[in-house]
Each structure stands twice: as structure tokens, then as C-alpha cells.
Specification:
The chain is an alpha/beta fold. It has ten helices and nine strands. Helix 4 packs parallel to helix 6. The radius of gyration is 20 Å and the shape is elongated.
Length: 245
């Protein structure tokens, strides 16, 4: 079988450490009735472990050079479906599922958005991501658009920190196992309007909200938010502001 090599252009870092693999599987808490969606199977090491416990694993790979080798690896598993596609174009299943993956760092935000901005969101998300991005997502004081985005849809937490030595080739930064327990419905249900408002506020993040959202001064003053900056607002603050507009 032809050796599968990582491509820098696709941000590929193949997981090698079995202890990290076991921690991901433990966090995903897979039962025999679970359907799993995986993005970027790499050498298939995580896929095969997922398939041992899950009813079905749908794994999505963009790199056509990996497909022939993965077909060989998965040949003995009748519950793995391999799809050659960009995961950002993949329509999520209509049935309940969990998203579990070691993903390229550069698609972290768009990938999470893709699966949360759908009628059928995953019940749980477990991802290997860059440590600093995981910390930003889990922030509870100095918020970012990404933190607000994720926390509107679920409860994130860092399970463990993963060193570069767990991968081949080694990334230049630490990674983290990130778990997101997805809510049945978002805290702010009109999330499209919310994120439009948040993006506007964060585009001038050094400015007070009375400047960045000056067309909403009356609502800001009513909620005593006019002198705050976007990063200091909680989700509840945003919900109150949204409701008052």
C-alpha cells in the first residue's frame, strides 16, 4: 500500500498517540446506536476506533490522494462510509449524530459554523484543535465572536492538552481535545441577526458599544451597556440587547 503523506497545504497532521486516541473515544461516549461524522480521517486510526463502538461512521476526506489507501484500511469494516468531499459542503445527516474529528486547524471556525448552522446539529462535538483556539472558545470573560458563536449553541470544555509529539508531522503548537455538548436549541434563537450585530460590534472592538453600535444607543443606554466594549458582554447581555431592539 502506498504510504500516505501529509500535505501542508491541507493542514494535515496525522494523530499517532494511542493514549490521545483513547481519550477522544472516551470523551465521545459512543454507544452501539450512535452515528458518527468524522472529518479528515488521515490514516484512518481514529476512524477504525470509532467504528468499533458506533453503529455507523461517515468519514469525509478532501485529499483524493488518501482515498485509495483509506479504502484498503476500511475494507473490513462494513459500518464505515468514506466520502471524498470538502466537509464544508457536506450536508449533515437527518438522523441524530456526533461529530468527532482531528481537523486541520485552519478550518476550525468554518467547520464548527457549518455543523451548528443547520437544522440537525450534532448532539455532541469532540475535536482536536489548536490549544489557543480551544481556550478562546471556552473563554468566559474576555469574549470573542468565536466564543459567543460556540457558546450560543453548546457548552464547550477542554478535556486535555495534546503535545506536538502526538502527531506526524509535528505541528508547531500544542493542541487540545475540545468537547462541545450541544444544546437542543440555541440560547439566542435568531442567531443570524445576533451574529450580524456581534460582528458589527467586534469590528470596532476597541471602541465602546455606544460608538460601534451607535444606531442602537437607546437600547444600550436602557441596559446600561453603552460604555462597555463588545468583548466584555456575556451571552445574556447580547440576548437582552437583541430582545430590546
Amino acid at each position: 500500500m502506498k504510504k500516505m503523506r501529509a500535505k501542508k497545504s491541507l493542514g494535515q497532521n496525522f494523530l499517532q498517540d494511542r493514549s490521545v486516541l483513547e481519550k477522544i473515544i472516551e470523551t465521545a461516549d459512543i454507544s452501539s446506536s450512535d452515528e458518527i461524522v468524522e472529518v479528515g480521517p488521515g490514516h484512518g486510526i481514529l476512524t477504525e476506533e470509532l467504528a468499533k463502538s458506533a453503529k455507523k461512521v461517515t468519514t469525509i476526506e478532501l485529499d483524493k490522494g488518501l482515498i485509495p489507501g483509506l479504502k484498503v484500511v476500511f475494507a473490513l469494516h462494513d459500518n464505515i462510509e468514506l466520502i471524498h468531499q470538502n466537509a464544508l459542503d457536506f450536508p449533515p445527516p437527518q438522523t441524530p449524530y456526533k461529530l468527532v474529528a482531528n481537523i486541520p486547524y485552519y478550518i476550525t471556525s468554518p467547520l464548527i459554523s457549518h455543523f451548528l448552522h443547520t437544522d440537525n446539529r450534532p448532539t455532541k462535538i469532540v475535536l482536536l484543535v489548536q490549544k489557543e483556539v480551544a481556550k478562546k472558545i471556552c473563554a468566559n470573560k474576555k469574549m470573542s465572536v468565536l466564543a459567543l458563536h460556540v457558546q450560543n449553541f453548546g457548552k464547550p470544555r477542554i478535556i486535555d492538552i495534546v503535545p506536538p509529539s502526538a502527531f506526524r508531522p509535528r505541528p508547531k503548537v500544542d493542541s487540545a481535545i475540545l468537547e462541545i455538548e450541544v444544546f437542543k436549541k440555541p440560547i439566542i434563537e435568531d442567531y443570524k441577526a445576533f451574529f450580524k450585530l456581534a460582528h458589527q460590534a467586534f469590528s470596532l472592538s476597541r471602541k465602546k458599544l455606544s460608538n460601534s453600535l451607535n444606531q442602537h444607543k437607546e437600547a444600550l443606554t436602557k441596559l446600561n451597556l453603552q460604555d462597555k466594549r463588545a468583548e466584555h458582554l456575556t451571552l445574556e447581555d447580547w440576548k437582552e440587547l437583541q430582545n430590546s431592539l
